[in-house]
Amino acid sequence: MRTFSSNHGRPGSGIPRGAGIAALLAAAGLLVTAVPAQAVTAAAPQAPHADVIPGEDTATPALVDGLREAVDAKAAPADAAIGHLAAKESRYRIAEPKRDLAPLGTVRHGADETVRLQQKHHGVPVLGGQYVVRMERADGKRVVTGTSGKYFTGLKAETEPTVAKDVALKRAIGATARQLGGKLTKADAIRKEGEKSEKAQALSGSVGGLVVIPRGEGVLAYHVTVRGTNPATGEPVLQQVYVDAGSGYPVLQYSGIRTLTAPAKATAEATERTAGKAGKAADDPAAHPGTTGSGVRLNGAKVPLELFQDTARGEYVMTDYARMADSTKNTLSTWDASAVDVNDAAGTWPAGIKVFGSPAAEFGAAATDAGAVDAHWAAGQVYDYYKKHHGRNGLDGRGTSVNSLVGVTMFGGSYVNAFWDGQKMVYGSGDEEFRPLSADLDVVGHEMTHGVVENTANLVYAGQSGALNEAIADYFGNAIDITASGQSMDDPDAGLIGEDLCRTKAAGDCAFRNLNDGATTSKNFLGVTFGTDNGGVHLNSTIFSGALWDIRQDLGGELADKIAYKALSEYMTPLDGFTEGRNAVLAAAKDLKVTTKQLNVVKKSFSAHGIVPGWEDAIGVDSDQLLGKLNISGTGVQAGGGWYAVSQSNDDGSEPYSVWAGRADGKGSPKLISPNDGRYHVYPATDGKTVVWVAYGTTSLDILSRPLAGGPIKKLYTSYNDVSGLRVENGVVVFESYGFFGDRHVAYLRSGDTRPTFVDGGGWFDGTALPSIAKGKLAYAKLYLDGSEFKLGVEVMDLKTGGKKMTGQLGEPQGLGQTGINGTHVFWLTDEIMEDQGQMGVRRADLDGGNVVDINPEAKPKALIAFDLTVSDEAVTVSSQLPDTQYRNETLPKLWQLTTDGSRLERVSCNRGEQLSPAALTGKQVVWLDGSTGWTNLVTRSRPAGLCG
After folding, report:
1. Is 8 a catalytic residue?
2. Which one, of 912, 876, 880, lies nearest residue 894 by Cα?
3. Cβ-contact 373, 367 below 8 angstroms
4. Which CATH number is 275's domain given?
5. Number of helices and strands (H, E) in the chain?
6. Under a CB-based contact definition with an 8 Å cutoff, are residues 139 and 149 in contact?
7. CATH number at residue 907
8. Which residue among 56, 113, 306, 447 is the active-site one?
9. 825 catalytic, yes or no?
10. Could you read off the pLDDT of 573-627 as tens digits, one per residue?
């Protein structure tokens, strides 16, 4: 879903490097940068006039341009395109195009034909495997002018799953719960007040078909869509999860939510396709033809509105039959959703809503204030722009109905967001600072352009391809606004997105982004996890949109828009990153026969924003690397006794994860701990004597252990629920179990135990989470029923005696984060102030539960937005963001270290990029997963770096 919001997401763990494809696939859920194109096996010599750009990790070219090669003029376009690829096998290296390429669709524009083909591996679709063939027809002849896309030539994966669908569904829901996870909140109690039923689930999902993820020789996976509500925030959730069909491990996951700024949670796919029927008015439009009325926008301008006279309602309604009257006779309609919560609007059609109506054709103040006049007028402007300038009939090019829902709220309060969910636009109510989100044409243009992108290149909304998706939505949204208003491209405010939404602040202070600020280049690229802004889709979008905007300033709107639209609709494919996007724009410009001077303008614009070959070079760091290029997702790192334990895949991320352990001082070689048995070995922990971890099997999960000194692997326990959060000390293994209904329980296994002991008994009404262990004592967050009221607290259990002590609290916590324990104190993250930006306090108590103090209060100015914690005898290290109105490097997850009394707060490292999954050793030493070089690296520092200026 595409939305406009500024909420911070909780990061996952693990960070992969890679452009389009590598960013998304090299290590699911991790940091996204880019890799240079790799050398491929040389193809046969090309015709002198053909420009060929080799593909990455494939022998098939990424782009071939400058062709004039004849093909069958009488055949269907897809047949002609596939015939061309078959005839030129030496160039394309596609051995069986008739078998392995399925037509997705053909778009005709004048004499041009663009055929999109989906790659299949033994009949199974390949994620992002799409190839495009461009042709031209004239005088009864047809020629191929070029090709582009991604066809993966090295796939050898099996296509028969060994994991059952119900297991894949359960694993996907568990993976989503873990990513949302973190805090144990009072909201978790809501599910406990009902019975264990389908309605009690916080999350649910549906298993789609099998796909092949093109890593290495390929990974067969189930595509699972998980929906529900975030228990911590109440926001809608839509997660796209890909579960390895051979092992059951979730190898790739990202949010399907599209937002204007940082992602608010809103479902990205419709669960029902009602757009066509929803757009129909009560009466037959032929009997009651449309009429033109008017309304006043929130900026005070009076505008014409295409309406329909609904005699059944006795009103003029905001249903526009005029614009598609000569084609599909479908409509553009604007619906009153002011009584609808965003959870009921995201991906579904809310019951009981009506098209905005008025007794007279001139709509009054109520429609203005709701944002309905703006939404209806703007939808028509966007439709007209695409029809007039690009010959496109609606968002899908086929004249399907366009529906806008206006005024949605969250829990009856304000909702400052807007999104496209695959079937409609949804605009939030706004608040005291922002008008209704439909009140700026560039916002409406942005959201509707997401619909255009989805129906052309369908750029995957994660990592660089997601940033490219956002960049194009920004570019065309603003281009439409500029075109309609007549604003000069030289106006300093011309590049602002959302500036007309501002109620009190100046445009430049309130706008979501500025395409004309000249500040964002690839040097400012931020590699982040998919849990943060879906891998940087907004953080990094202006790198590309800024280049497009510069082109528009220098070449003028008409030509620049044609180039950008042609690149999107005829060249780009789902996994393209910035480099492929640059190549597409240059090729489209050449295809439009621009002059050499104009082509140089395009090149210089991309160069000015740093999008040049090799732009992805790594930057320096101040930490010591222990292991590099882990290519892992969400498995974390733990440490103890001078050793670390971490999972690792191979260089392209295609192999199941193995567990490795090594000395935290970097001496000696790391040891392979887990067996090479095809399973994913994850969530490792060590105390310097033993390594424990979880192995994902086809039906269950095994908790395994092995001595660091060597010896046999022992199976400690088999679970049919998801588990995580492993810790180990002197033979006692602690973990957290996730139930299918969202319940969480901490358990431990002593040496020789065949079954775990659940600290809360494993019952329905108590919940425990986020364990830590030290000196024979176990700490965890607890949700428990006190009389008729659910409460939250932190409990310390003496493993020797079984005695338990509940710590005191300084207030009434609404959420509790990770616990940490050492020989003298227990520490935890606490959330008591629900009206802030997500800050959490760092709290400490004696081991008997007394002497509770905040060593970093939640109410303190610039308190941390924390989501992880680890402690030693000398220091408390927190992975945290800083509160801010926008994402930037300074507000990405960084490691902050406090003395145990809170008297000093410093940054552990000044590295640029995300810093995740800290694990404390002795003193002030910490190991963590760092993305600053563009890869998931395991790094360490023995002391904090200071405040990082």
Report:
1. no
2. 880
3. yes
4. 3.10.170.10
5. 18, 52
6. no
7. 2.120.10.30
8. 447
9. no
10. 999 999 999 999 999 999 999 999 999 999 999 999 999 877 766 557 899 999 9
